Amino acid sequence: MRGKPKNISLRRRLICDLMRASMDVPFVSLSRSLNVRPLLEARAGAVAPAGWAAMFVKAFALVAREEPILRTVYAKWPWPALYELPKSVALVAIARVEDGEECVIPQRIAAPEALPLAAVDAEIRRAKTAPIQDVPMFRKIMRATRLPYPLRRLSWAVGLNFGRQRGNWFGSFAVSSVAAYGGGELHPITPGPFIVSYGVVEPDQTIHVVIRWDHRVTDAAPIARVLTKLEQALNTEIAAELRAAGSKPIRAVGT
User: Fold this and answer.
1) Is the pTM of this model over 0.85?
2) Distance, CA of 22 to CA of 163 (rounded, Å)
3) pLDDT of 176-228, one tens digit each?
4) What is the DSSP string of 74-110?
């Protein structure tokens, strides 16, 4: 068959580099349906409810504040070791269309547990609509992706293998979902160490959540506890913040 060659765009080159960096990570996953009835009730009454990505980012970071293992990365240099970060750093997969091409670029949010939920949501929404050159993380990523292949490999190696740099480049956890496009059980791949994915809200007021993690960092039992704590954080702290942000006005019914 005769086809036609197509150049790899800068955005697809980023994904190629990301997949290469993820190849050697021994990922395992655990999934569970979380009951989010209190969260849904709080969100239904909010004037301007935060998006699901923002709620999961902050909820996971709140759990990580009490669970240091969720702020731990595997680093190879100067020798193989586990490295605990002082705070969470989230990477959120942002779906965009650039020059007619659909692409995904990660947005970095440092210490989301210390930010108002509205601020986390604003960062994610801005990353979806602002020009790439106006988003610092996007500029940084595109600058590295433009490098020649040998220099690109070197920059990725430094970002991946030094514990301190892992937080700067790849964060302590990532959030990705296709719920906005109809849902499905997504098992995304990143260099890790933790990736959270969520589906659509089901009629029984549950939402399916998948956590993938680097098995070199921790085992399944702590992650099972994390899913329970994540459900609690969504239904307590996040729901309370939604309620505190203001409720929809109640319209009087004429008689």
Assistant:
1) yes
2) 16
3) 999 988 878 888 888 989 999 999 999 999 999 999 999 999 999 999 999 99
4) EE-BSSSEEEE-SS-EEEEEEEEEETTEEEEEEEEEE
| 8 A C-beta contact, residue 27 and residue 213 | yes
- Within the chain, strands assigned E span 27-35, 72-75, 81-84, 89-98, 101-110, 173-176, 194-201, 206-214
Residue 35 backbone class (left: φ over 0; alpha: ψ -120 to 50; beta: rest): beta
Beta bridge mates, 72: 84
pLDDT digits (tens, 9 = 90+) for 105-147: 999 999 999 999 999 999 999 999 999 999 999 999 999 999 9
Q: Regarding beta strands 173-176 and 194-201, do their DSSP bridges make them parallel or antiparallel, or are they unpaired? A: parallel
Residues 6+ apart with CB under 8 A from 35: 205, 206, 231, 235
Alpha carbon of 219 to those of 67, 82, 88, 224: distances in Å? Answer: 13, 14, 19, 9
Distances (CA, A) of 133 to 93, 96, 136, 138, 142: 17, 14, 7, 7, 9
Do residues 50 and 242 make contact, with C-beta atoms less than 8 angstroms apart? yes
Going along the chain from its start, the domains and CATH numbers come out as 34-244 (3.30.559.10)
Q: Smallest Cα–Cα separation from 115: which of 90, 93, 133? A: 90
Give the number of other Cβ atoms within 10 Å of residue 245's Cβ. 17
CA gap 235, 38 in Å, rounded: 5
Burial state string for 77-114 with b = 16 or more CB within 10 A and e = fewer than 16: eeeeeebebeebbbbbbbebeeeeeebebbbbbbebbe
Q: At what angle do helices 220-233 and 52-66 cross, to 10 degrees?
A: 120
